[in-house]
Amino acid sequence: MSVADRWIDLLMGCLTRELFCEEEARDVDLSDWAGPGDPAAIRRHLGEQGWRLVTRGADPARRREGRDWPPHAETMVGRLRLEQIRSCVEAVLADGVPGDLVETGVWRGGVCILMRALLEAHGDTERRVWVADSFRGLPPPGPDPHPAEVTTDWSQVEVLAVDADTVRANFARYGLLDERVCFLEGWFADTLPDAPIERVAVLRLDGDMYASTLDALDALYDRVSVGGFVVVDDYGAWPSCRAAVDDFRAAHGIHDELVAVDWTGVHWRRSS
Question: pLDDT by residue (tens digit) across 157-190?
Fold first, then answer.
């Protein structure tokens, strides 16, 4: 294994924090507290004393598959989906497929950080990494939501709202923030159609919702080079995301094989 391979492997372990699962601490949810005392009063008293009630450790198998929400990691996608992104990026580099690397929906930026690291490890000095997100969480349901989202509103989930400066700081933590990391801040419908992206070699979709997924495909799919990859994070986890991908592929006559990555991620390689 080369030094570059060792670095990328170590980076993935850090981005997921799978190397430190036994040291991880997360706040205990007292909503189901069955013991004496009022949960709100207990939480308030602990806070006044500067204390936290935490549980230690995380399940490495769940982390590997991206089945938990890490309290500190830069990504929640897990090792398997990071390995898949690595294989896609290395394939387009080896095959000379033109285009930049794009992720729509970045959370804390971990996948984009890995993309930038892979360009560095392979000596690519031209391609850019596009970091597209609202940087304020998921949008509220629209006036005509997809049927699978009628009762779903994740717009108030604070853990999903990571601001752009925090993501920049995460890039900087690994020494990977430079002029080739390009931020697109805002809702996809507003930022992606006119984004100054000429060609795309790897397009990773992690917008969760029907409209967010379709907005990204509508704006960027025509720029994906032949031989490039389209990667979908939420195909298995979110029925509305799956519906958006299936609808788009059907409408555009896309028959490239849809390859499963793990329990939720899929990708296809554009052949024509």
Answer: 888 999 999 999 999 999 999 999 999 999 999 9
Asked whether 155 and 140 are in contact (CB, 8 A), the reply is yes
Q: Are 234 and 105 a contacting pair, CB within 8 Å? A: no
Q: Which residues of 114-139 are buried (b: 16+ CB within 10 A; e: fewer)?
A: bbbbbbbbeeeeebbbbbbbbbebbb
64 in any annotated domain: no
For residues 147 and 194, state if they share a domain: yes
30-81 pLDDT, tens digit each: 776 777 778 778 878 888 888 877 888 899 999 999 999 899 999 999 999 9
Residue 147 burial (CB < 10 Å; 0-12/13-18/19+)?
Answer: exposed
Using CB atoms within 10 Å of the CB of residue 33, give its burial: 0 to 12 exposed, 13 to 18 middle, 19+ buried.
Answer: middle
Assess if residue 72 is contained within a domain. no
Tokens 């230690």 belong to: 56
Domain limits at 229?
A: 78-269
Q: What is the pLDDT of residue 158?
A: 86
